[in-house]
Specification:
The complex is a heterodimer. Chain A is mainly β. Chain A is built from no helices and 9 strands. In chain A, the strands form 2 sheets. In chain A, strands 1, 3, 4, 7, 8 and 9 form a 6-stranded mixed beta sheet that branches. In chain A, a hairpin with a 6-residue loop joins strand 3 and strand 4. In chain B, strands 2, 4, 5, 6, 9, 10 and 11 form a 7-stranded mixed beta sheet that branches. Chain B starts with a strand and ends with a strand. Chain B has no helices and 11 strands. Chain B is an all-beta fold. The chains are: A mainly beta, B mainly beta.
């Protein structure tokens, strides 16, 4: 049972827009801690996709965007492409002095 | 460029201990926290703990507090994670990951991963 809750799977056709939610509590996201997002392709380490709720590291396409409101956050992917098919994880910090991850969401590009 | 190179795969028996190392290069080692994250087969990411390489202080997830030790060697820019009393459920890929920026608690650079298999 992960501290942050994500849907197990989402899907979309090429060119469409999808969103992945990440729900926390008043001890992590709701406490004001930043949310970060990672993309993991099969057999590879996770890659930082969004940091500080809505910032993209250099090299990440602007098709990826993040937002946060209250105790929840979202990752949006527009103009879906086949290479976006991957697992996506949200991550934050908890006032129990712990880094916490969501359970992960598998994105399928139809 | 930032590089994190981890030690090779391990096979251990239940009850044994394993030590995974992570050698950092391409940046000032003492300026960035280093995290350890594991991923069991087909499962999600699980944070285990982190170390401040400048002073050696650690923060370990409650679940692992009695079994995980994280240390660093500043002379070789290496962080080590030792997991004791291994059980089959500890079979996983173990990653070291450096903070994206000092104190950010957002791992921005990851090692290649080390597969630890626990089997009798």
């Amino acid at each position: 049972q992960s501290v942050l809750t994500q849907p197990p799977s989402v899907s979309g056709a090429p060119g469409q827009r999808v969103t992945i939610s990440c729900t926390g509590t008043s001890s992590n996201i709701g406490a004001g801690y930043n949310v970060h997002w990672y993309q993991q392709l099969p057999g590879t380490p996770p890659k930082l996709l969004i940091y500080g709720n809505s910032n993209r590291p250099s090299g990440v396409p602007d098709r990826f965007s993040g937002s946060k409101s209250g105790a929840s956050a979202s990752l949006a992917i527009t103009g879906l492409q086949p290479e976006d098919e991957a697992d996506y994880y949200c991550q934050s910090y908890d006032s129990s002095l712990s880094v916490v991850f969501g359970g992960g969401t598998k994105l399928t590009v139809l | 460029q930032v590089q994190l190179v981890q030690s090779g795969a391990e096979v251990k028996k239940p009850g044994a201990s394993v030590k995974v190392s992570c050698k950092a290069s391409g940046y000032t080692f003492t300026n960035y926290y280093m995290h350890w994250v594991r991923q069991a087969p087909g499962q999600g990411l699980e944070w285990m703990g982190m170390i401040d390489p400048s002073g050696g202080s650690t923060m370990i997830a409650q679940k692992f507090q009695d079994r995980v030790t994280v240390t660093r060697a500043t002379s070789t820019s290496t962080v080590n994670m030792e997991l004791s009393s291994l059980r089959s459920e500890d079979t996983a890929v173990y990653y070291c990951a450096r903070d994206r920026e000092p104190g950010s608690t957002s791992p921005g650079y990851w090692g290649q991963g080390t597969l630890v298999t626990v089997s009798s």
